[in-house]
Amino acid sequence: MATDLSRKCATGFRRNPAGEQPAQYEFRILFNGVHDVIFLCDVKTGRIIDANARVKDTFGYTVEEVVGLNLAEISVGKPPYTHRKARLLFLKAALKGPQIFLWEVTRKNGHPFLGEITLKRCDLFGNDVILVIVRDITEQHRAETSLRAREELLRGILESTADGILAVDSEGKVTHCNRRFAELWRIPESVLKTEDDDQLIGFVLDQLIDPEAFLSKVRELYNSPEESFDTLEFKDGRLFERFSCPLTEEDKIIGRVWNFRDVTDHKRALTELQAQEARLAEAQRVAGLGNWEYYVDNNNISWSEELGRIFGLEENNCCGDLSLFLSAVHPDDRFSVLRSFVVTLKAGRAMDLVFRIVIPGGQIRFVHQKGTVGTNKAGDRVRLYGTIHDITSSHRMNEARRLVSSVSEEAAEQDLEALLGKICNRLGDLIDTTNFYVALYDPKEDTYSFPYSRDLYDGIDFSQSQLKRSLTDYVRRTGQPLLCDERTREKLIESGEIELIGHPSPIWLGVPIKASGETMGVVVVQHYSQADRYNHEDLDLLSYITVTIGRAIERNREARRQQELQSKLERAQRMESLGILAGGVAHDLNNTLGPLVGYPELVLKKLPADSPVRKQVERIGQAARDAADVIQDLLTMARRGRFELNPINVNDVFADYFDSPGYLRVVGANPEVSVDIDLGKDLPPVRGSAPHLSKVFMNLIINAFDAMPEGGRLTIQTSHEYLSALIGGHDGIEPGDYVIVRVKDTGIGISKKDLERIFEPYYSKKNMGSSGSGLGLSIVYGIVKDHKGFYDVFSEPGEGTEFVLYFPAAISSEQETTAESKKDIRGNESLLVVDDSDDQRELACTLLAHLGYTVDSVANGHEAVRYLADHDVDLVLLDMIMEPGFDGLETYREILKIHPGQKAVVVSGFSATERVSAMQDLGAGQYVRKPYTQTELGRAVREELDRQTTQTSA
Hints:
Blueprint (H helix, E strand, L loop, with lengths): L3 H12 L6 H12 L3 E6 L5 E4 L2 H6 L3 H4 L16 H13 L3 E8 L5 E13 L2 E10 L1 H23 L3 E6 L4 E4 L1 H6 L4 H6 L2 H9 L5 H11 L6 E6 L5 E11 L2 E11 L1 H24 L1 E7 L4 E4 L1 H7 L7 E3 H6 L6 H14 L3 E8 L5 E12 L5 E10 L1 H19 L5 H12 L7 E8 L4 E8 L16 H8 L3 E4 H9 L12 E9 L2 E10 L8 H71 L7 H24 L8 E3 L1 H9 L2 H8 L4 E7 L6 E3 L1 H17 L5 E12 L12 E10 L6 H4 L20 H11 L3 E7 L3 E9 L21 E5 L3 H12 L4 E5 L2 H10 L4 E5 L8 H11 L5 E5 L4 H10 L4 E3 L4 H20 L1
Parallel strand pairs: 23-25, 29-30, 29-31, 31-32, 32-33
Antiparallel strand pairs: 1-2, 1-5, 3-4, 4-5, 6-7, 6-10, 8-9, 9-10, 11-12, 11-16, 12-13, 14-15, 15-16, 17-18, 17-21, 19-20, 20-21, 22-24, 25-26, 26-28, 27-28
Helix pairs in contact: 15-16, 15-19, 16-19, 19-20, 19-26, 20-25, 21-23, 23-25, 27-28, 28-29
């Protein structure tokens, strides 16, 4: 029901048009002339007080019918278009300002439609009203929704494709690109956001191998109606397919679409497939294996290129009917082959048979055919397919395998010559071995040896085994089998590769013997009359057998090597055991000899020069020192001695020995022995001890003289070589430069049995006590090992013996010499002697006290630590070997915790070099070997005290 204001407005606006003012009249014309529906609503009640004529077309109401209704009453009243929300929007327009929004309203017939609503409060001819404008946008909204859906569909299609898509306008400006385009071209988001076409193009061009060609193609196609397809190559190896077509509008080109597809993997797969097919064809060629496929419906059979070669068919003819295939089968085998096709098709069984074929020229060959059934989706058997393998050679190879099997079982046990003879005889059943030999090459001597040979014309002269420029040498040099007929031989002679040696043969086969990747020799068969006696299949057969020959020779050599290594291992174990025993004995004897060596020197200083017992005391001292030297030999043999290794020249050691009285005496005693000395020039130094190396050379030379009681020749040589294996074949050495010492005699030689034990102490064929201590070669062994050297011994009874020593060359040639101190060895400092031997403690204290030192002593390392916890001394004299678990090294470590920098001298009669070195690394001074004299001990103590004092003061 309308209010008074409503009635008043309605009367003023609609019912008295003749009485309207001009402004009101113009408003009325405009009010009813607009296309949208206009309501005038009471601000307070929200009811419609007037409407224009458009309300009939849009809502179905007459103006009279709509007046008095509330706006909420024409709303659908359902979320989100609720009456409450409609009232809030009306109130908002009244209080805050104009409101524009979309709202679903209903027509008179109840059908809803979507309207764009505008609410605005205004003063209309003195009346405060809400102006409501309603525009029906249902169709517009439906069209926009449909357009958005189509756009989303198009966007979804563009973004879901694996191709990169780029759209440009007619001037080449980018209008759109999907994410895949950015991913393919690896375009950063920062570049895309710039929407800078030049920057985008520049980023793209930097990736291409030929950017100019890319740009040229783009410019060419901007306004072209043609479609385009090409490929793009990238610097990083990628490959894109590019497809382009024009964008048109009413037959006018407005732009262009570019489609990019990454085909890198596809091309790689295609390339790999082609490579695999090529490898398959090559594998078939190498294996002599062809494949075929037979189709039931047209009776046609196709085959691979290799199968055509096996059958001798034309290269360009790879298919035909079954009769063409059967025509190559031996007449006696055709029925079996045809029957196998029929049975396989009917029963579905696999085909597997061997039959003969006759190739053009009449040669008969054996083939092995395998096949199976192929079906269609309905399960019908529509084809056969399979392989054919040329097994002609395998018939003979089977026999060869049996030969190999029997030979392999006997290779390790049988004598090499007997084994090769058996191979030759058995091989004669397969190929002609009337003329057969095995030649083994010695790279060091550059000569050949012949462990087995037989020949109708040429007997092998073992004293003339040089085969330079021969066919045998040619095969060895090239490492390739050779089938040599007269024409091939003439070509090799003309090219200078070979020379004619021995009786010429019209056909010759040679196969290299290989082991561990190296050619060790050649196996040869030849025929002197029939030039067609051998062919390439014979060459293959001989190559197969030669592998077994090579393995047999290698196993034979390896067996000998293993025996030698086992012998050396056993010898080393014996030496180690003897060394442990000798070291223990030497340690005890050194302690026992200590007073005998030390006290005579002290007694002599107290005796008058004319004392009648002076000579006896001197002899006691000398005897004790001689005994100490023998003990030192025991330590050397046991590898328990200790000496400094400095760079020295081996030739200088020899020169000093050759000038020594000992050498001159032995040479003078053996005038019937001639001596040849050949010392190599410019030898690199070795790290060694000159006195010890001199002892090695002296022992070897004396042994050589002893081995030639009836006279002979002694040869002494030194040289320098780079080696990766010893001359004797031992290959466990570190490759590098070595100084080699050879001492060779022409004496009685050493038997194989005795050769295995020559380095054992007291193992000698000399008369007991005739010369030396019986430790000569044991000392040689110990010193060579201590110098990180190696040795070879070559000897035959009656032919002499050669010792070959190998010493690693030193990196530096600097000579290290130490001048013997000539200072006074007396002093007045305080010393502490630590030794578990009562005699040794008393001896050391007595000798040092007579030199002026204040000396105290303790019996072990623990007592020394306790003593030094309460006392200071200038120097500690430490025995190396004391109670187990707390020797000189452990004692010194504990002492340093109490007195850092404590001065010390190490003494021992049995020293492990590593622990002595460890003590010296901690700060200990010199090492003094028991038994010692007063002078030796005093000099070591004095030099250590002076050295430390000097450093401290500096």
